[in-house]
Specification:
The protein is an alpha/beta fold and about 375 residues long. It has 2 domains: about 180 residues, NAD(P)-binding Rossmann-like Domain (Rossmann fold, 3-Layer(aba) Sandwich), CATH 3.40.50.720; about 180 residues, 2-Layer Sandwich (Dihydrodipicolinate Reductase, domain 2), CATH 3.30.360.10. The protein has a 6-stranded parallel sheet with strand order 5-4-3-6-7-8, sandwiched between helices. Helix 1 links the parallel strand 3 and strand 4. Helix 6 packs across helix 8. The two termini are about 35 Å apart. Bound molecules: NADP nicotinamide-adenine-dinucleotide phosphate. The site of NADP nicotinamide-adenine-dinucleotide phosphate (NAP) has 31 residues, from helix 1, helix 4 and helix 12.
Length: about 375
């Protein structure tokens, strides 16, 4: 059967029948990212959501009774009665693919246990993003970094695997920068205006954020620099070689619900013409588009000509939340050019990113030993 992806594009990938779908679980299913994953998995053509896990505050009760649903629509009917369980491998979570939306400390503890038990773990958490044998993937940019799984599996004796997606502010920036790498990225300064949902739920107290901007997000500026260099770098001779660009980030929390806006100045080794940059963005596409992966947007980047776009409220849902919207390209008085980019932080920046990584791994035959039972014991 022909599948339609997030932009209504015809996908080359067949829809699997219900019994053939790959059993999947979400860890941290009650949080902001977990809710997005539950919503995206409810209708997924390849993965069937069979388990949901959260903290011991939530375990033992049906998902629908516990979750404080904070995204559009209703809790998907088929998930409401699933019991919330502990985020540990075993018969209570019989999943071959595990999507992790756990906080960092819990991810550090629980994610390897699933990989050791045979599951493919697609993680949103930062715990292992910078590990030497863990791919940090944006499928349109560095799908080749999945080759690191050979070394990961051998070194850790895991039948499963662990793959990560970047921090929510890094992902929009890297998608905007990747097509420009051909001009030689030398230096980047980025100032973010990050949405409240990026801090999870309940996140920043309302009295700290309404009528206010908080010019500090713990660890975020460092992550933007290190993750961007890893993603834009290479997997070569058995190790990750960082891209050489220098990056300085200012990260701010603003009272916007969803959508991280970023103001970027960039210096190149060879200064391109504005039309070269626009063409590079317009033509940018990658393996998810070629393979027609279900969550792939038809266009990873959309450029808007209006002088006052992109805007979170108007542009974050472009490509079902998977397209990064760029605008305001103009000369920079200090560097070469400056522009603005926007990405949906809980879809392209988190749940959709983890899903696209798992789809890519499935399409490449990398979901652990794909005929095996995964983390069912
Ligand atoms: N929000 C974003 O835009 C975004 C973007 C990219 C990456 N991330 C990363 O994704 C992860 C989840 O973020 P979030 O925003 O969804 O956070 P969140 O809203 O605070 O949700 C945290 C989830 O983890 C569960 N949890 C907390 N402590 C636990 C424990 N000890 N054992 C098992 N489960 C536990 C919570 O369950 P209870 O309901 O039972 O407490 C909840 O389901 C974090 O690592 C974050 O850094 C977030």
């Amino acid at each position: 059967m022909t599948q339609r992806n997030t932009s209504g594009q015809s996908s080359q990938s067949a829809q699997l029948s219900q019994p053939q779908r790959i059993p999947a679980a979400v860890l941290g299913a009650t949080g902001m990212v977990g809710q997005r994953l539950v919503a995206l998995l409810a209708e997924h053509p390849w993965f069937a959501l069979v388990g949901v896990a959260a903290s011991d505050r939530s375990q033992g009760r049906p998902y629908g009774d516990v979750v404080r649903w904070r995204i559009e629509g209703d809790v998907p009917a088929q998930v409401r009665s699933l019991p919330l369980v502990a985020p540990t491998p075993g018969a209570h979570l019989p999943a071959q693919v595990v999507f992790s939306a756990l906080p960092t400390a819990e991810a550090q503890e629980f994610e390897p246990a699933f990989a050791r038990a045979g599951a493919f773990v697609s993680s949103n958490a930062s715990a292992y993003r910078m590990s030497d044998d863990v791919p940090l993937i944006v499928p349109e940019i560095n799908p080749g970094h999945l080759d690191a799984l050979t070394i990961q599996r051998a070194a850790r004796a895991w039948p499963g695997a662990l793959v990560t997606n970047p921090n929510c502010s890094t992902i929009g920036l890297t998608i905007a920068l990747a097509p420009l790498a051909r001009f030689g990225l030398r230096r980047v300064i980025v100032t973010t205006l990050q949405a409240a949902s990026g801090a999870g739920y309940p996140g920043v107290p309302s009295l700290d954020l309404i009528d206010n901007v908080v010019p500090y997000i713990s660890g975020e500026e460092e992550k933007m620099a290190s993750e961007t260099r890893k993603i834009l770098g290479a997997w070569t001779a058995g190790h990750f070689a960082d891209a050489e660009l220098r990056l300085s980030a200012h990260c701010n929390r603003v009272p916007v619900r969803e959508g991280h806006l970023e103001c970027v100045s960039v210096e190149f080794e060879q200064r391109p013409q504005p039309d070269d940059i626009l063409a590079a963005w317009r033509d940018f596409s990658g393996e998810p588009q070629r393979l027609g992966l279900p969550t792939a947007p038809a266009h990873p980047i959309a450029y808007r000509d209006e002088p006052d776009r992109p805007q979170p409220a108007r542009d974050r849902d472009q490509g079902a939340g998977m397209t990064v919207t760029v605008g305001r390209l103009r000369p920079c008085e200090i560097f070469d050019y400056k522009f603005v980019c926007l990405s949906h932080n809980t879809i392209r920046g988190a749940a959709g990113a983890a899903l696209l990584n798992a789809e890519l791994a499935y399409a490449r035959g990398l979901l652990a030993q794909q005929g095996e039972q995964g983390a069912s014991q």
